[in-house]
Amino acid sequence: MSSPAAANAAAASFATLTERLDYLAPIDLEQVRLAYRFADEAHLGQLRNSGEPYITHPIAVAAQCAEWKLDAQALMAALLHDALEDCGVTKTELIERFGSPVAELVDGLTKLDKLQFNTREENQAESFRKMLLAMARDVRVILIKLADRSHNMRTLSDAPREKWARIATETLDVYAPIAHRLGLNQTYRELQNLAFRHLRPWRYDVLNKAVTKARSRRRDLLQKVHREVEAAFAANGLKVRLAGREKSLFSIYKKMATKHLSFAQVNDIYGFRVLVPNVLDCYTALGTLHQLYKPQPGRFKDHIAISKLNGYQSLHTTLVGPSGINVEFQVRTEAMNMVAESGVAAHWLYKTHAPQETAQAERLGSQWLQSLLDIQDETRDAAEFWDHVKVDLFPDAVYVFTPKSQIMALPRGATVVDFAYAIHSNVGDRTMGARINGEQVPLRTELKNGDVIEVETAPVSTPNPAWLSFVRTARARSKIRQHLKTLAHAESESLGEKMLAQALRAEGIEKMPDDSPAYQALWEKLLRFSGNRSRSELLTDIGLGKRIAGIVAKRLLTLLLAAGEKPDAVLLTRERFGASETVSQGSLLLDGSENASVRFANCCRPVPGDEIVGYLGRGEGLIVHGEECTVARKLRHKDSERFIRVEWSDELARTFETGLLVTVTNGKGVLARVASALASAEVDITHIDMGEEAGNDAPDLRFVVAVRDRNHLETALRNLRRTPSVLKAQRARITTQVSADLARDSER
Fold first, then answer.
1. 396-472 adopts what CATH topology?
2. Do 575 and 505 form a contact (C-beta atoms < 8 A)?
3. Would you call 86 a catalytic residue per the annotation?
4. Which helix (H) or strand (E) holds 423?
5. CA-to-CA distance for 288 and 152, rounded, in angstroms?
6. CATH topology of domain 656-747
7. pLDDT in the model for residue 748
8. 4-204 and 210-342 share one CATH topology?
9. Alpha-carbon distance 537 to 542, whole Å?
10. What is the C-alpha to C-alpha distance for residues 55 and 50, in angstroms, rounded to an integer?
11. Of 28, 67, 71, 86, which one is the catalytic site residue?
12. How far apart are alpha carbons 644 and 642 in whole angstroms?
């Protein structure tokens, strides 16, 4: 019997790795050997929690990479991945010894090792963003990282128990989903099981014993199925390799938890995998199986004709075997099996045998990785980036067709808008309507397998903020947000310019200085005062309410006076002192075309004809309230300098929403009569709320309606008051408590 010291020495030797590297050229093997020697010297004297020499860990990581047949550079990086952080080795030293590509891989892995996935959402989001971007630039980074995590999880029992929960949770939340998304099915299952074992040890043991007992109980039955299936294939002259397949413990646990099943009710624990030489044989084998046992209706899936998003291909069918037990069969070629187990790693693993069959998995994996870089270009906010990509980690797909019969795979729950953005961002931005299977449908319609979708576009159409509430894909969400941010920025700058010009008029300056060279020095001084980087940014901040136009105007006036300009006394008198003796900044005219830069407050929902005031919310742009609004009064009492004069324009660009409160006598057809009364007044209903009073004798119906102006609203109210069953109809007013809450929110 060998001693522990001898066992450690064997595990730490390069010989344990050499036998796996027979696919490398001699020159590459020598480079990997040099990397091993360097790592062995660097980690000399370091031990793992188990008491083994530390070098056993890099060797185990490199061995997993060798299983995937990764190239020599990746194997060298796997051996050196802890050298930078733990051993004081510099990146420059690695470049000199092993070249820049290896050093970059090691550097990327070192940065990932420093990341801590804390419970705080923003820290986790930032860490996740860095990791995904590192792997997007070179997929070998994440493959080595997954190999590293796999070995750490296999040896987690040697780590202090207080670390188990954090590391296991991090593995389930981050690393297992990435392995799944990249098609590394074997690694995905192993990481899930190891995390489950350390996160829920008691449940893991109970379930493991139950599966072992069930395996021995059903052994005879499964052997019978195995013999009958082999005989059927032999009778048809099919060369197949038949292997048993068992559902992972974590998959069983998750199914029991989500579907509230007992262990006895989970009937697809065991199955068979049928491996055949080519694609045509897959369908022949399927026919043979269906002749042998009866298939279960609705349990057949063809992932060969339409592969999954991560490149997975296989035929799935569930058959009713002997004694009425359900047995699942997966039928695929050897190349498909390699892709199914190894995903993007199959590019290295199988490239010499069947490049055409592994190219799809590599392409699908690289497409997703490239999309991460695209989203990163559109948002620098880590939490927003995390929000975009986490939905893509478990892509349960639907498969739909373009009018030209091209197949597209989208996540389950994807809508017409997701489809439009999947075609091209310009198509998504210009979408105005769609047809599914020849029928006109709303844009929020969820897609189903086999749908043929035709998107209708218009040059004047733009993304609607409401789309964010129903789109499913990260690409669509990021593109919509990017467009809205750009739009809001441009509108806020325009509003800010208008407000500053009006504030200057109140100081007696007829025309605001432009951005010509003559005024460049003046604007530079003003920007130093405000802390902005550019004129555009200053005007945008004024439009968003981050700067007060009146204060900026007074500073600008001082600079203009120093430059020799004088205020116009007539203009000053006319602008600053009107009919009332109050100081004003001039009135801002509103016609409803201001979009994102101006919002009409939900507390009072003013319409043309109402007396209104404008409040510059901090970073929210201009918020318009009714003059008598309780929220506006509270804000004016505390924050009067943020109010500006606003008036309705004579020419209005659209209708405006306001609230109605209608008290009715309960009875059949009441809602229809009320809706009819509003329709006869040509009023659009945008929202109805019956609250919890629907069963009362005299419930209150709350409507949000779109009207042209106050006269139009009065016409609608008269129609309602004449309607049978309507006891009272009035404009909705906000409650005192709600107004206090809204005022508090606005101050923030």
1. Ubiquitin-like (UB roll) (3.10.20)
2. yes
3. yes
4. helix 416-423
5. 44
6. Alpha-Beta Plaits (3.30.70)
7. 47
8. no
9. 9
10. 12
11. 86
12. 7
Closest among 189, 194, 165 to 177, alpha carbons compared: 189
What are the pLDDT digits (tens) for 325-366?
788 899 999 888 877 776 665 555 544 444 444 455 445 455
CB 600 within 8 A of CB 658: no
Q: What is the CATH number of domain 210-342?
A: 3.30.460.10
Q: Any idea where the domains of the chain sit in the sequence? A: 4-204, 210-342, 396-472, 486-648, 656-747
CB neighbour burial string for 174-192, b if at least 16 within 10 angstroms, e if fewer: bbbbbbbbbbbbbbbbbbb
Distance CA 664, CA 690 (A): 11
Chain segment 376-409, per-residue pLDDT in tens? 555 555 555 555 555 455 455 677 888 887 777 7
- What CATH number does the domain located at 4-204 have? 1.10.3210.10
Kindly state the tokens that stand for 257: 């938890």
Amino acid present at 618? R
Could you tell me where the DSSP H helices lie in 663-733?
Answer: 670-680, 710-721
Q: Helix 91-98 to helix 26-42 angle, to the nearest 10 degrees?
A: 150
β-sheet bridge partners, residue 328 = 271, 318
Phi and psi, residue 218, nearest 5°: -100, 5
Question: Which residues 6+ apart lie within 8 Å of 384 measured at CB?
Answer: 481
**CA 645 – CA 640 distance, rounded (Å):** 12
Which residues, other chains included, contact 717 with Cβ-Cβ below 8 Å and sequence gap of 6+?
Answer: 660, 729, 730, 731
Those residues whose C-beta lies under 8 Å from the C-beta of residue 396, and which sit 6 or more positions away, are: 411, 412
Report the alpha-carbon distance of residue 168 to residue 173 in Å, rounded: 9
Strand partners, 589: 647
Within 10 angstroms of residue 67's Cβ, the number of other Cβ atoms is 15
pLDDT digits (tens, 9 = 90+) for 72-99: 888 999 998 888 766 777 888 888 888 8
Q: Which two tokens mark 7?
A: 């066992």
Q: Which amino acid is at 724?
A: P
Catalytic (active site) residue 82: no
Give residue for tokens 């309780």. 630
> Taking all residues of the chain, what is their mean pLDDT, rounded to a whole number?
78
Report how far apart, in Å, the C-alpha atoms of 323 and of each of 227, 265, 320 are. 15, 16, 8
SS3 563: coil
pTM: 0.52
Q: In the chain, which stretches have pLDDT less than 70?
A: 1-12, 85-86, 110-137, 267-268, 309-311, 342-397, 488, 544-545, 567-587, 594-597, 618-621, 691-696, 733-748
- List 28, 67, 71, 85, catalytic entry: 85
